[in-house]
Amino acid sequence: MRPRQDGIPGPLLLATLLMILLALPPGSQAQTGESRDRSTYLAVMATYFQVPPMELEILLEGRGAIDELPVLLLLARETGMAPPALSASRRGGATWMDLLRRFGLSAAHLHVPLEASDVDARVERVWTLYRDLDRSAWDRIGLTDEEVITLVHLKVLSRHHGVSPGRILQARAASGSWVEVPGRLSR
Which of 108, 45, 112 is nearest to 74 (CA)? Predict the structure, then answer.
């Protein structure tokens, strides 16, 4: 049998390559976009909070919401509580605001300065409250879990990447989740 002269691999060669790729262990194949985003996100969180990446993986086992990880780590750092204890309180029904208040923290602690031109629907209510209330009243602001998650991501990611919180909001608007944002900022 003569080799092809047009430079295009024959069907047998393609089938053989495909079989070899499928036989490789999953970790040896190229990462999917989703797993690459997850790895980048966890690397950013590990670096920012100075936590070994493996510890983050352990924290996430059975926990579910990866986008709550920076809130958990920030609260653990600010209160001195172990992340698993805080996670257990969350699974027990406590909101992030409940946990902040339990440890003497408030919405004032989560304030992130934003330009009016950067405000989107995700932060509009909170931004309006911060703008309209005297700073001394910020500790009485009640936040939803989603607002806490958003403010913490704005704080962590803007500091880590050295960009404005407004740039983080733009990246989040162009992404499907918070997990995708660090990868989008790195491109």
Answer: 45
Helix axes 53-60, 33-49, angle to 10 degrees: 110
Q: What is the pTM of this model?
A: 0.81
3-state SS, residue 173: helix
- H helices of 30-164, where? 33-49, 53-60, 69-79, 83-91, 96-102, 107-110, 124-132, 145-161
Q: Which residue has the tokens 């509009």?
A: 124
Query: Which of 45, 36, 52, 79 has the alpha carbon at shortest distance from 159?
Result: 45
Q: Which of 136, 152, 18, 138 is nearest to 75 (CA)?
A: 152
* Domain definitions of the chain by residue range: 31-186
Reported as a single tens digit per residue, the pLDDT across 112-165 is 999 999 999 999 999 999 999 999 999 999 999 999 999 999 999 999 999 999
The total of other beta-carbon atoms located within 10 Å of residue 85's CB is 10
